[in-house]
Amino acid sequence: xxxxxxxxxxxxxxxxxxxxxxxxxxxxxxxxxxxxxxxxxxxxxxxxxxxxxxxxxxxxxxxxxxxxxxxxxxxxxxxxxxxxxxxxxxxxxxxxxxxxxxx
Length: 103
Fold this sequence. Notes:
This protein is α+β, with helices and mostly antiparallel strands. It has 3 helices and 6 strands; from the N terminus they run βββββαβαα. 17% of the residues are buried.
């Protein structure tokens, strides 16, 4: 998958991002269970307050951030994972055909 990014990038504002291109201010966060609350009656996962607040702050600083939730990733096949990543990157304006990572 081609997207030039840094792993574990820290923004000038002090936020840590899992994968980020600081030049374009585009990032991807891989969100594990600690980023969610689970609705007791439906079983649905809902982003917790800290995750929502971080996302809101990053947007206010001009970042476009895609989130990959653990529950969409864990049981997915390799091809489904690739499709998920392509879709999430497209949401932040990253074309699948762009170059590799620069870790």
